[in-house]
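Design a sequence for this backbone.
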């Protein structure tokens, strides 16, 4: 792998995304995203975007429509997750490129907002990518009932002028 990306990094929709693909990006390990200590059960993503450099998958973002209620009103968001960039190619704008491609697709899916959960050290990255923090508790479904999401919740508008409504936020599913 060279130190410079030769040409633009192009994110494409992936036909599938497997654990082997994830391992190719992040390496093998029991907790590649550093969230196992939350004890949460997660939903898999349904639509995947990736970037390959020299034939190797080096970046990924996944999407999934998720039902939720805000202030008691039911709606849907496009959940964004599984964002990963191989350690040896970080700092080259690949996260920006793969998330942008995923959000371009998310804008065709109908919901007004994108939503993601991240560890606190990643908040600044997502802010640079245009995401906003949701500074309230968010409840997510789990096998034994709803729990407060221990990770930071962030959102982004998928439509011009879309704002986040006020009120209690509850995912009506497992997080993505």
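Sequence:
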């Amino acid at each position: 792998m060279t130190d410079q990306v030769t040409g633009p990094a192009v994110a494409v929709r992936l036909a599938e995304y497997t654990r082997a693909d994830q391992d190719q990006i992040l390496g093998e390990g029991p907790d590649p995203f550093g969230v196992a200590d939350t004890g949460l059960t997660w939903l898999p993503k349904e639509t995947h975007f990736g970037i390959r450099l020299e034939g190797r998958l080096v970046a990924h973002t996944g999407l999934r429509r998720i039902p939720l209620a805000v202030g008691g009103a039911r709606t849907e968001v496009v959940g964004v997750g599984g964002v990963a960039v191989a350690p040896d190619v970080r700092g080259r704008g690949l996260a920006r490129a793969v998330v942008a491609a995923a959000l371009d697709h998310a804008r065709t899916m109908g919901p007004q907002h994108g939503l993601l959960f991240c560890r606190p050290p990643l908040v600044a990255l997502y802010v640079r990518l245009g995401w906003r923090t949701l500074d309230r508790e968010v409840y997510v479904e789990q096998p034994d009932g709803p729990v407060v999401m221990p990770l930071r919740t962030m959102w982004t508008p998928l439509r011009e002028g879309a704002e986040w409504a006020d009120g209690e936020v509850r995912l009506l599913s497992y997080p993505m």
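DSSP finds three helices and ten strands in the chain.
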